[in-house]
């Protein structure tokens, strides 16, 4: 699987330089086919040169990395063209929706760095208008109440090669349709007894245009409108009208809606021609959805993982939900960078998980504070260093920032190093610690391994060493090839560190070959007891640290407490993932 998408490659060729003010000075915007459409509209003066986009989530789950692409695209375009982007809840299905989802969606859009305070909308606020427009369609002979059973409707829809058949109820009078629709609304009919359909063309080669359903009966409480309605509008009908009511200029959606566009346009044209809605209508533009390797993205599957306890919740740090990524230690900047690099195209887009990890490293390298942490500790006793004595050592908080200050820690007789930084029988090219060899403890002294002690199972329990007092870091003098991180017992902190791996073992767990759950990686979470340098004592969630040589880490926002820290590793420092 290539990490470069076809679409991104094509876009790069046509890249044009453009300057936008984003508060951070100049910013180079790669062009793409959507920008070209908007640029043309700006030139022609369509939509009065305004750009109004929207991100329309259905509050039936948590947002995932695919949604982030859509959020960054819609809010990003609005920002670049000095327009606005609406956050609109597409809340037309009372059965699956919930305020918990709504709250988390708002929180994650804000976390990504986008504001919608004055631009928060709900499709459910348009229920009145949508109903009135449906009556208008009925009055014009463009909609009818169909009383066929669901099975009959399915059977009469036809297939890709066969036209559909007209419903026996298609020619009901407007009066009868209006009366029935009113009764449906008032709850006088059972779920499924009738639906309202547009009268389009049962012979259309496009199945979406074969008298699509626009209203169904649902005796269900809606989390915002309560029991005011017993009929609820369908997505295709609701979406275009909501866009038009909000004067959206460019309505961006994923490719599977391409075949629905004629319906989108048909509904709006008929409401514009009678002055029910203003012109010009919004333009629906489709782009390819983002697919990420080693994960599943469908909300149904994410919900299943949560409900069956295969993960700890929607915000499990292994989940590719935004809540999970945040908890794991991904930054909003890294996700925006990832979305920007993914680009916009109509080509089928598969992106490698490694690209997401790279975006985090690129975002954090320059800014993250550094610290030393030993994840798999083995004890080192420095026999020629006096017991009870300590030596102050320090290191830059961030080597890329001269004004970032320094962090302090103490060298002492008993320190911990990483078990893998010692080899009893060193292989060629191993420059770390081995019997009789020297290594530098970073930011401190050179030590030499004199002998080791092992337990009955043959594991090293203590390394006995001597230090060279003339080699303190920063004082000039001699050096050695290897330098390893360490933490001393006297001022180190013990903490739980959670090391994550991909949740699935295969690139496409969703390929359809067998149940995706059979590809779960049993080694996706490993918890270790680590030693951390003292500067981490007050670390907080939302702060990112580079643990020297070990990766980027962040305190767990749920489980980490002062005095009982829990860190998550977001990524290692280098690419090089292999299936475990
Ligand atoms: P479903 O409709 O099955 O519940 P969905 O992923 O389409 O799932 P929505 O809440 O409707 O969920 O999505 C909100 C917006 O996010 C839509 O405009 C949708 O096109 C966009 N979106 C969803 N998944 C992706 C993806 N993988 N890549 C890009 N955009 C996406
Ligand atoms: Mg959807």
Structure description:
The protein is elongated and about 100 Å long. Helices cover 25% and strands 22% of the residues. The longest helix is centred in the N-terminal third of the chain and has 16 residues, at 65-80. It contains 13 helices and 27 strands. The protein is an alpha/beta fold. It has helices at 6-13, 33-44, 65-80, 99-111, 127-139, 150-156, 174-185, 235-245, 261-273, 299-307, 322-328, 332-342, 353-364, and strands spanning 52-55, 84-89, 120-122, 143-146, 195-198, 213-217, 231-233, 250-254, 283-287, 290-292, 349-351, 369-371, 373-374, 377-382, 391-396, 406-411, 414-418, 438-441, 446-454, 460-468, 483-484, 486-488, 493-500, 525-532, 545-547, 551-555, 566-571. The strands form seven sheets. A seven-stranded mixed β-sheet has the order 12-25-26-27-23-24-13. A seven-stranded mixed β-sheet has the order 21-18-19-20-14-17-22, with no helix packed on it. Bound molecules: adenosine-5'-triphosphate (ATP) and magnesium ion. Adenosine-5'-triphosphate (ATP) is lined by residues 56-58, 60, 66-67, 69-70, 253-254, 289-290, 297, 299. The site of adenosine-5'-triphosphate (ATP) has 14 residues, from helix 3 and strand 8.
């Amino acid at each position: 699987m290539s990490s470069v998408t076809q679409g991104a490659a094509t876009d790069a060729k046509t890249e044009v330089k453009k300057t936008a003010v984003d508060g951070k000075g100049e910013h180079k915007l790669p062009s793409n086919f959507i920008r070209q459409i908007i640029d043309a509209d700006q030139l022609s003066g369509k939509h009065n040169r305004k750009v109004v986009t929207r991100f329309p989530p259905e509050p039936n789950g948590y947002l995932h990395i695919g949604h982030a692409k859509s959020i960054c695209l819609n809010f990003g375009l609005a920002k670049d063209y000095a327009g606005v982007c609406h956050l609109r809840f597409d809340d037309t299905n009372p059965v699956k929706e919930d305020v918990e989802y709504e709250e988390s969606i708002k929180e994650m859009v804000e976390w990504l760095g986008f504001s919608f305070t004055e631009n928060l909308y709900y499709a459910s606020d348009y229920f009145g208008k949508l109903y009135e427009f449906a009556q208008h369609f009925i009055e014009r002979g463009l909609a009818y109440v169909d009383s066929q059973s669901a099975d009959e409707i399915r059977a009469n829809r036809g297939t890709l090669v066969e036209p559909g058949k007209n419903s026996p109820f298609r020619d009901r009078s407007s009066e009868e349709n209006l009366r029935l629709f009113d009764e449906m609304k008032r709850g006088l009919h059972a779920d499924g007894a009738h639906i309202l359909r547009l009268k389009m063309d049962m012979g259309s080669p496009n199945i979406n245009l074969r008298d699509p359903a626009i209203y169904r009966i649902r005796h269900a409480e809606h989390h915002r409108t309560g029991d005011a309605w017993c009929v609820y509008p369908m997505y295709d009908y609701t979406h275009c009208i909501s866009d038009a009511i909000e004067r959206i200029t460019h309505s961006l959606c994923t490719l599977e809606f391409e075949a629905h566009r004629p319906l989108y346009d048909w509904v709006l044209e008929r409401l514009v021609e009678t002055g029910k809605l203003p012109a010009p209508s919004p333009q629906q533009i489709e782009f390819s959805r983002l697919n990420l390797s080693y994960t599943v993205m469908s909300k149904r599957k994410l919900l299943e993982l949560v409900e069956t306890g295969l993960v700890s919740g929607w915000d499990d740090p292994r989940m590719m939900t935004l809540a999970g990524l945040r908890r794991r230690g991904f930054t909003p900047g890294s996700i925006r960078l990832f979305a920007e690099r993914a680009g916009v195209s109509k080509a089928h887009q598969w992106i490698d998980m490694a690209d997401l990890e790279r975006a985090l490293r690129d975002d954090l390298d320059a800014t993250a504070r550094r610290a030393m942490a030993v994840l798999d500790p083995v004890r080192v006793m420095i026999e020629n260093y006096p017991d009870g004595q300590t030596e102050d050592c320090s290191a830059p908080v961030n080597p890329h920032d001269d004004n970032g200050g320094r962090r302090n820690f103490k060298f002492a007789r008993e320190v911990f190093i990483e078990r893998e930084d010692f080899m009893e029988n060193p292989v060629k090219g191993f420059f770390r610690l081995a019997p009789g060899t020297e290594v530098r403890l970073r930011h401190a002294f050179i030590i030499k391994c004199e002998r080791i002690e092992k337990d009955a199972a043959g594991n090293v329990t203590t390394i006995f060493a001597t230090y060279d007092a003339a080699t303190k870091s920063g004082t000039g003098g001699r050096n050695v090839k290897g330098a390893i991180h360490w933490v001393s017992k006297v001022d180190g902190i013990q903490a739980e560190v959670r090391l994550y791996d991909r949740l699935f073992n295969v690139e496409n767990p969703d390929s359809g070959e067998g149940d995706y759950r059979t590809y779960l990686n049993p080694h996706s979470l490993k918890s270790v007891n680590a030693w951390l340098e003292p500067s981490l004592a007050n670390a907080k969630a939302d702060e990112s640290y580079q643990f020297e040589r070990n990766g980027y880490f962040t305190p767990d926002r749920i489980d980490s407490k002062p005095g009982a820290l829990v860190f998550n590793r977001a990524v290692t420092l280098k690419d090089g993932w292999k299936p475990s």
